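I have been asked to look over a protein record a colleague put together. Alongside the sequence sits a line of tokens, each denoting a local backbone shape. I have pasted the whole thing underneath without changing anything:
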Amino acid sequence: MNSFIPYLIISAAILIQFAAAVYALYLIKITKRRLGWILISTANLIMVTRRIFSLIAFYRIGAFSIFNELSGLIISIFMFIGMIAIKNYFFSILQAHRELSINKQELQKSQLELERINQSKDKLFSVISHDLKNPFNTLLNFSEIILKNYQNLPAEKLLDFLDRINKSAKRGYALLENLLHWSQFQTGTITIHPEKFEIKAKIAETILIFGEVAAAKNIKIINNLKKEFFVFADQQMITAVIRNLLSNALKFTENNGAITVSATELPQHLEISVSDSGVGINDTNMKKLFNLNTNYSTTGTGNEKGSGLGLILCRDFVEKNGGKIRVESEIGRGTKFSFTIPKQNL
């Protein structure tokens, strides 16, 4: 027999069995099974030692059994292939487990989204059935009185009724506007259009809208921004935030009170604050603000009604534009809402 063949068979067996011993140790990490793979690794190392002695024996005295050595080589090859198959099997199990875990996470996300949608639906029905009904009740009742008695009504009484109708219509319109924005936000149909704009003038425009309401309660609204500030955000969303915060401040400020709008420059943001000298909010109720689940709302100092939707809309719009909103308050000393807006495209 060619002396090269025994060397080739024995050397191949040594390499394969040594590789199998190392591979068995690697499979401990994959399968998390220690004892079995340690025994297999040890057995392969023993076989490697035995093959080395066979190689030495052949070199010294020429002793070689081709059947035994060839059988050992074939067994070693099949063992190594089997170990690879076991590794692939465990990898497939791990992959299936990962996919199952991902599917479980997606299912949990879907359940949370469904709960959020149900909460939004409940809030929508609550606003429609209660808060939106009140302004229309006022409109219908007073307009009906005017229609039936317009010839007999004194001018002062008629003016009072018309004033109430006008205020009710404004409340209804503001609520409908918030409801429309909020429903668009919840359904994902609202699109953000960030742009650079000057906010001092925008605040001044919004304050003018509330001139009549402020005058009725003799409340001063002070635009305390000392200079022009440019921000990068969606103008309509930020205007809606300012409008809702001013409306909220007017609602809870006593007659002859004051509301101040101010700004603080931060490294990357501008912080806008709306402070009032109103009744204030206790700590328990402050935790309910910006929370759809609590549906917190209370009557204003002039018996103004609200839905609690405005502040939730403020939070959503501010966060959508890359900012944050917070509130500070003390009973009897007023409330301060502050929100941040990026000064440039972040």
Observations:
- The radius of gyration is 39 Å.
- The first strand starts at residue 194 and ends at 198.
- Residues 4-105 form one domain.
- The mean pLDDT is 79.
